[in-house]
């Protein structure tokens, strides 16, 4: 490819709105241009990288025996009503009507469409297992698009869906896709980590893993153990402080009972009268309490009041911990969980926000196990300007509904081996789910087994953010000069630069090398622009092609400069050896 006519509009400075380094460099290097917030055009270089990533995905899907199809982005809303996700998916689902007032959505994912397809086309166990995938544009109306390709409203995604006749078959399909994803991300040059995760809006009855590219800009927190291979995202991660009494933890009655407890009226305190009132005027937050009393935040217990679907509940966590609302929702099998407003809090506790406590509450109380392990605590008194000191969990309030309801913290003990937990930031580039019968049951996707009986198909789904990989790779592979593309997904492998297009010897040698490299099957970009050498070299570093061959003043002697972008080492070699060195 000749650079003179190629659309590569490089920029000396990044637009002010570009916060992430990947966003800045992809704009500056002429890979993408913004059309609207969260919506981008991929210019020639960006599209070449997208195609390289897509090719790797297709090769690995072929190796795993997965078949490629292409489904429509425009989906009839009745399928989403049938699955029950039309109302619960949220405002990210782009809804619209056609000229006949029929409702449609722009697909953020394709569970409904693929389940309906297989339901209509596959009816026998003999045709299972079956896994289908596509690479297609997805649409999500992000409330706050940011970081360029990392959080957009329109993006390229690979999504696959497996259909099995048994849970054992799903386990096999899941493992096959998990392994394929590991190969894909490794081939793309990513430093990544598979982590246990929450299924979110996709849902399902089995496990799920996210694949996180480690990067400081990442919006997700990766929690991992320093002593074993345990890793999870913050929504899923478990941790304990190491002080819990094992006999105390045996009192947990289980999350299933917690769900039914929401419907019961009232919860009596286990005891009363053994604590002291503490005057805390205008002291509402843990930080203010710690400052006014001189005690550590871990000495206090926060009582947070939530509206859980249609019922109010209280969640107790230690003062230095944060409630994990995902865990609470799962414990109660709830769809919606929001903090109660000030009026509701006062109606329930008899006090304004900031003074809620567990003693005497007539709503179910979920107690985090780290609270249950404390000997005495300070809690809100359910009275304005007062807290209670020397409150004892299990004596002064019930521990009947106890579990893991908080975010893990750095330094917690690993739930598997007891080692220390550490935190990293990560970019989610892929996720695999065991869906089970979540969609096949609702959309009536069944097959006849070997005895002729109808059975529900057992499903899995598997997604990769193709366009997001571009940003994740750049976040991990760049320097002060620009991008450092891994060889496998670089837009070109060699950047061939002629220093002066007016020097006939340079032009002759550059053209000959360009021809030889192309014949050898090397992807080469020839910089044949009439520009100053400094401009060409800066653009070359910015674009980040792995190898740079410079044809300059020594062209008449048959010598060129060879430079690897990643190491910046530059040597002079004979032009006769260029092809062998590049392909060797």
Automatic annotation (TrEMBL):
The keyword Chaperone does not apply. Keywords: Aminoacyl-tRNA synthetase, ATP-binding, Cytoplasm, Ligase, Nucleotide-binding, Protein biosynthesis. PROSITE patterns: AA_TRNA_LIGASE_II (PS50862). Its EC number is 6.1.1.15. It is an enzyme of class 6 (ligase). Consists of three domains: the N-terminal catalytic domain, the editing domain and the C-terminal anticodon-binding domain. This is Proline--tRNA ligase.
């Amino acid at each position: 490819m000749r650079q003179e006519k190629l659309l590569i509009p490089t920029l000396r400075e990044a637009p002010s709105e570009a916060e992430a380094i990947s966003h800045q460099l992809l704009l500056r290097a002429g890979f993408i241009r913004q059309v609207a917030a969260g919506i981008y055009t991929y210019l020639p270089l960006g599209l070449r990288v997208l195609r390289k990533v897509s090719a790797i995905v297709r090769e690995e899907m072929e190796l795993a025996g997965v078949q490629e199809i292409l489904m429509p982005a425009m989906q009839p809303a009745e399928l989403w009503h049938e699955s029950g996700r039309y109302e619960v998916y949220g405002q990210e689902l782009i809804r619209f009507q056609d000229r006949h007032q029929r409702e449609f959505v722009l697909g953020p994912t394709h569970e409904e469409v693929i389940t309906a397809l297989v339901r209509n086309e596959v009816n026998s166990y003999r045709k299972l297992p079956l896994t289908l995938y596509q690479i297609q544009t997805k649409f999500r109306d992000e409330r706050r698009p940011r970081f360029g390709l990392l959080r957009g409203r329109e993006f390229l995604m690979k999504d696959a869906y497996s259909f099995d006749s048994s849970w054992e078959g799903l386990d096999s399909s899941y493992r096959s896709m998990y392994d394929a994803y590991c190969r894909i991300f490794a081939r793309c040059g990513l430093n990544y980590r598979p982590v246990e995760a929450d299924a979110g809006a996709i849902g399902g009855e089995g496990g799920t893993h996210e694949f996180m590219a480690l990067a400081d800009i990442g919006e997700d927190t990766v929690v991992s153990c320093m002593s074993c291979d345990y890793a999870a995202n913050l929504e899923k991660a478990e941790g304990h402080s190491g002080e819990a009494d094992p006999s105390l933890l045996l009192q947990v009655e289980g999350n299933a009972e917690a769900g039914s407890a929401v419907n019961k009226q009232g919860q009596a305190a286990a005891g009363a009268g053994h604590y002291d009132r503490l005057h805390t005027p205008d002291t509402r937050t843990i930080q203010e309490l710690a400052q006014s009393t001189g005690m550590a935040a871990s000495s206090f217990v926060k009582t947070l009041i939530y509206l859980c679907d249609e019922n109010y509940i209280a969640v107790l966590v230690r003062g230095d911990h944060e409630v994990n609302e995902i865990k609470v929702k799962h414990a109660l099998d709830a769809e919606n969980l929001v903090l109660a407003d000030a009026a509701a809090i006062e109606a329930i506790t008899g006090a304004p926000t900031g003074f809620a406590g567990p003693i005497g509450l007539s709503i179910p109380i979920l107690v985090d196990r780290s609270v249950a392990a404390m000997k005495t605590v300070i809690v809100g008194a359910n009275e304005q300007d007062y807290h209670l000191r020397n409150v004892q969990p299990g004596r002064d309030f019930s521990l009947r509904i106890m579990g893991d309801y908080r975010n893990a913290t750095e330094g917690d003990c690993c739930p598997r081996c007891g080692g220390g937990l550490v935190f990293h930031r990560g970019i989610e580039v892929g996720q695999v789910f065991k869906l089970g019968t979540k969609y096949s049951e609702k959309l009536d996707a069944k097959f006849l087994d070997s005895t002729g009986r109808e059975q529900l198909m057992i499903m899995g789904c598997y997604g990769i953010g193709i366009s997001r990989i571009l940003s994740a790779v750049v976040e991990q592979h760049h320097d002060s000069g620009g991008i450092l593309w891994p060889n496998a997904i670089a837009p070109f492998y060699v950047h061939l630069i002629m220093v002066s297009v007016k020097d006939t010897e340079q032009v002759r040698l550059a053209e000959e090398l360009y021809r030889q490299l192309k014949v050898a099957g090397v992807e080469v970009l020839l910089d044949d622009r009439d520009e100053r050498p400094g401009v060409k070299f800066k653009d070359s570093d910015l674009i980040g092609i792995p190898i740079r061959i410079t044809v300059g003043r020594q062209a008449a002697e048959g010598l060129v400069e060879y430079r690897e972008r990643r190491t910046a080492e530059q040597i002079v070699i004979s032009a006769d050896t260029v092809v062998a060195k590049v392909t060797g």
